[in-house]
Design brief:
Elements lengths: L2 H13 L6 E7 L3 E12 L2 E11 L9 E5 L5 H15 L8 H16 L15 H6 L1 E8 L5 H14 L3 E6 L3 E8 H13 L1 E4 L5 E3 L4 E7 L10 E5 L3 H10 L3 H8 L4
Parallel strand pairs: 6-11
Antiparallel strand pairs: 1-2, 2-3, 3-4, 5-7, 5-10, 6-7, 8-9
Helix pairs in contact: 2-3, 7-8
Subcellular location: Cytoplasm; Nucleus
Protein name: RWD domain-containing protein 3
Organism: Lepisosteus oculatus (Spotted gar)
Amino acid sequence: MSGTALEEISVLTAIYCEKDEFELLQQSDTKGFIFRIQIALERCSEKLLLKLVFQLPPEYPFCLPDISISSEQLTRKQCINIKHSLLKRASMLISEPMVHELLVWLQQNFTAITTAEQSPDYSSPGRSCGERCEQETWTALLLIDHMRAKTKYTKMIEKWTSELELTGRLFLGKLILILLQGTKENIKEYLLLQKTIKVDVDSSGKKCKEKMMRVLWEAQLPAAHKQLPAFEVKDYSSLEELKKEFELAELLELYQEFVHTLV
């Protein structure tokens, strides 16, 4: 695990020390550090609350961090603009600790970024696939353990898939499955949102994050398969109905290998 990242985490916890400003979400030798920083930014005399999730991989700072942005006061397009702008800035800071510098830069450029009409172009040095790979269609199959606030949870999933231009299915029945299709980057963005935003409630009715989601499968969609045209919610009452849905999506092998073994 990167000693540089560990030192940077220590500095960030000292700077963002107020309630809810900093939260370490995960730390491991394989994934590095995942943490959330919450900051208040001003735009035209209006104060906006922004949540940024950073993942610093073990190779950091010699590679870019993964960044996810969320705010109840901004549109998803504005959040994506912020993410892309930060990644572009980060590409100029490779090999040195950059998170705090990125946050300072964001404070200075926040108004200009959030009023831009289009997402700025950016490139990520060191990514093996390049732009072409980002545009290829990927598929992910997720298993959700339970939904207590089913209506709210479902609406949140539909909102995220729409904003990230993902297609697929939400299967509701004995098993709760989410099938996602879209670019690899957007699926990764979805997974970060699913893990870090409070989407459900616990047994006492208190808002909580999704801690029991499992990624059953994630890979590039074979060239012979077509991407599903839309994201739809499908209720099913039997496993035969669920199997039929996978067959219609031309993903029967996926059902047989990963879903059939769960029941």
